[in-house]
């Protein structure tokens, strides 16, 4: 039996905690099991690649080669069987280590096939999954070389390990940047104080604003004196003689 890294399989293995990683293949296996395999054409291609022993596809199943039973050579035949799984309870006693799961065989999901099987070839042709000649790309191009180097770098690690490492690196960088902005020793930075009453708000335009205010005050004073004279003249003109 081929054991996957994340989905239920061996009843004695605890379910792994992988969040926030999204194990795409195991997640799609769960959806495929909800209907006939013809509703998930990718599963036919998946079986075909396992029969071919494609390394990139095998790594989606198991990163650790020792956990993959066909690491030495690909399987000759493959079939898929559908099981229903339930968690065991503490009341279900058993000899030896208690299993995490109990399962029941439900039905056959994918028929037994091998390379060159007419049924497999028919399914591949029906879904347009036959091997096609890919366009030639320059081997020394920058992007393919960068992707190959990155894959080789993360090859020994699982998906959750890579994701958590990236999160920890990002958090460390943010923390160091925050610490680098803090002043080291010396007097604390002076707080900005607003201008006192009667003082100009700034040195550049304070004098100009003061002159404008003095000019306006002088004009208001002259207007006030002019009104006072006009009021006095008018009062004297209306004075009656006895």
Explain this structure.
One of its GO terms (cellular component) is endoplasmic reticulum membrane. This protein is mostly helical and 242 residues long. It has a domain at 22-90 and 97-131. It contains seven helices and two strands, in the order αααββαααα. It has helices spanning 24-32, 41-52, 55-61, 118-126, 142-154, 159-180, 203-237; strands spanning 78-87, 101-113. Mean pLDDT is 82; it is low at 238-242.
C-alpha-based Rg, rounded = 41 Å
Span from first to last CA?
Answer: 134 Å
Q: H/E series, N to C? A: HHHEEHHHH
Q: Pick out the low-confidence regions.
A: 238-242
**How much beta, percentage-wise?**
5-15%
**Share in helix:** 40-55%
SSE-based structural type? mainly alpha
Query: What is the 3D form?
Result: elongated
Indicate the mean pLDDT: 82
* Count of helical regions: 7
Biased composition (Basic residues): 181-195
Protein name: Lipase maturation factor 2
GO cellular component, one term: endoplasmic reticulum membrane
GO biological process, one term: protein maturation
Short account of what is shown:
This protein has 242 residues and is mainly alpha-helical. It has 7 helices and 2 strands, in the order αααββαααα. It has a domain at 22-90 and 97-131.
Q: What are its keywords?
A:
242 residues, mainly alpha, two-stranded antiparallel ribbon, 44% helix, elongated, disordered C terminus, Lipase maturation factor 2, LMF1/2_C, LMF
Give the helices and strands, then pairings:
Layout: H1 24-32, H2 41-52, H3 55-61, E1 78-87, E2 101-113, H4 118-126, H5 142-154, H6 159-180, H7 203-237
Antiparallel strand pairs: 1-2
């Amino acid at each position: 039996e081929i054991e996957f890294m994340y989905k239920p399989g061996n009843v004695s293995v605890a379910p792994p905690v992988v969040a926030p990683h999204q194990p795409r293949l195991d997640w799609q296996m769960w959806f495929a099991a909800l209907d006939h395999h013809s509703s998930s054409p990718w599963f036919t291609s998946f079986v075909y690649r396992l029969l071919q022993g494609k390394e990139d596809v095998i790594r989606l199943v198991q990163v650790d080669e020792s956990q993959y039973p066909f690491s030495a050579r690909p399987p000759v035949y493959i079939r898929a069987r559908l099981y229903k799984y339930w968690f065991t309870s503490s009341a279900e006693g058993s000899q030896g280590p208690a299993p995490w799961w109990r399962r029941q065989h439900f039905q056959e999901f994918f028929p037994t096939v091998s390379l060159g099987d007419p049924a497999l070839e028919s399914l591949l042709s029906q879904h347009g999954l036959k091997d096609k000649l890919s366009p030639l790309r320059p081997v020394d191009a920058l992007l393919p070389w960068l992707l190959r180097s990155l894959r080789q770098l993360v090859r020994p690690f699982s998906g959750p390990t890579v994701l958590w490492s990236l999160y920890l690196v990002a958090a460390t960088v943010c923390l160091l940047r925050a610490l680098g902005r803090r002043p080291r020793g010396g007097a604390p930075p002076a707080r900005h104080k607003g201008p006192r009453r009667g003082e100009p708000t700034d040195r550049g335009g304070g004098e100009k604003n003061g002159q404008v205010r003095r000019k306006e005050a002088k004009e208001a004073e002259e207007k006030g004196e002019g009104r006072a004279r006009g009021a006095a003249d008018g009062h004297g003109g209306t004075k009656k003689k006895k």
